Amino acid sequence: MTNRFGSAPGPAVFEALAHAAFARIPAPFAEHLDGITVHVEEFADAETLRAVGLEDPFTLTGLYHGRPMSEESVWASGEFRPRITLYRQPLLAEWCETGVTLEDLVTHVVVHEVGHHFGLSDAQMHALEESTR
């Protein structure tokens, strides 16, 4: 007997889920998300994994790149705009292992990374995630 499964959702699906999660983030946070971009990569590269202190590429599902709002300054220039990178393969693996919907997993990662943009604590990130449901 052969089991056949459909194709795994591609990067465009992940981007669409991320943008849907952004759309559900409530005020006053939503007013400060302009300019944050979303990128989808298969895995974090070795340099990124080293920078965050991880070895297994399946352990990193997303990453915020940028300066938290609490550290922004009019004197800072020439920096890239803030961005969130979603790592597709680790998210797919977690989706298969946990049974949590892909939408919920992507929302969780997006909200967590947005929390880094605001310099929020884990408890505050959890509260923000609850408000997106």
Automatic annotation (TrEMBL):
This is Metallopeptidase family protein. It comes from Novosphingobium beihaiensis. InterPro entries: Zincin_1, Zincin_1_sf. It holds the Pfam family Zincin_1. Coiled coil: none annotated.
